Amino acid sequence: MSAVLEFPIKKDEFTTFNPATGKEIARIKTFSPAEVLAAVEASRAVWQVWRITPFAERSRIVMRAREIILEEMDEIARLISDEMGKPVAEGYSAEIVPVLDLMQYFARKTEKLLKPRKVDIGLLGLMGRTSKIVYQPLGVVAIISPWNFPFSIPLGEVVMALMAGNTVVLKPSELTPLVGKKIAEIFEKAGLPKDVLQVVTGDGRTGAALVDAAPDKIMFTGSVETGKKIAENAAKSLTPVVLELGGKDPMIVFADADLEKASSAAVWGAFTNSGQACSSVERLYVEQTVAAKFTELVVKKTQALRQSVGSEETTDVGSMITEDQLKIVEDHVRDFLLSGAEILTGGERNSKFEGTFFEPTVITGADNSMRGMREETFGPTLPIAVFEDEKEAVSLANDTDFGLTASVWTGDISKGKRVAEKIRAGTVTVNEVLYTHGIGQTPWGGFKNSGYGRTHGLEGLMELVAPQHIHVNRFTFVPDVWWFGYSKNAIETFRTMARTFSSGSVLKSIKMIPTFLRRLRELMK
Questions:
Q1: Is 278 a catalytic residue?
Q2: Is-catalytic flag, 75?
């Protein structure tokens, strides 16, 4: 699916399309490897100034950028919808609102969160020693961001990196480059110094060039396959990486849950953003005794969804991003049918529209042996399986190569917490679903093939700094007893220290004072 181009594409440019209509939106520059390297070098040069810029000034710029977003949010929401295909309503709710909250939080709190921290060093503290941790910015942070949340994901990471004292080179998805360029435009208007934030556009080759340019940290959100390639290439320059690589997120519904609320959550969790979220509900497990009733509610609510072009205000479910992504969904649905599952609603491409629309699809009779229950679908499907008891529910939820998010639905909060702690996922919610990426104060990331490292929260901020240990000795008038030269007396001192000083007990350590003093006299002769 693509519109016929009126003019040929130049060698150093590519085209972005509206996936809902197939119409060309713009032609964007493709950055060459040399230009990407130059961007990283310019970013590293200006970092020497930005890293010592006071927190108050960094905060002022971020808050000014936030004001600009508020002033231009209608334009931004429409741009997101046009370039990515999601409903304009989700441009506000899933992209603009959460990142505005993140911006104000880190603009106001980063200085406190990165405040130098004293370290308790035990008995050494009684010997005139002190230790503290200071947090140093890393340098150039490369952000390689996805198309499914093209505004909130990269902008949140940009803000945190800048507030931590880093400079940034952002490579947006080739499917949503205009949104990435908009982020740079916002910060330029906010008064961010030149080259502190740069955007390099292009396809996977541009991203590879950014990795090869050896920035000081790489933040990547995308597929497992690409994440592994980035990690492999980054290892050549020992560049640390944070990888968020998707999920196959389970939702567990117990019989004592509020089925009305849980069914609404399941429908939203599966079909928001046309199912193109790494924390989408991709596997739903419902307790056997309420499975029929719950499934009936889900089907009824799914059939009420309004699917159309994202620019319409009443659209619930928009288009998918590309024809290739839609074909993956078709393939998984076909496999469900061949494996004995049943399609209760949806199941086909929506032929009412020119673009890449797939009907919201509810599947029953699913089990964990089916391909669509094991591979990430990233589309508007909701396969439902049943379980008999808590133990089986946990086992089914953990039977996956992924571990990003999960949700547990029950009227018994104690049970919900208990089950949550048994599920191996980076975030597990009780009676909530999917949206916690929008809570900038909490960490985001997963286990297993969902990647490693964290974004957001204090844990995410720590990914953007290097802890530096500063140790001071104020008792410079005496030598350390462990210095040269060694002797019989020295060995006896060390043996006594092993029995007393290393215990951490003041009372035990008093016993070593005579030996300690003999050793000092020996060294000071």
A1: yes
A2: no
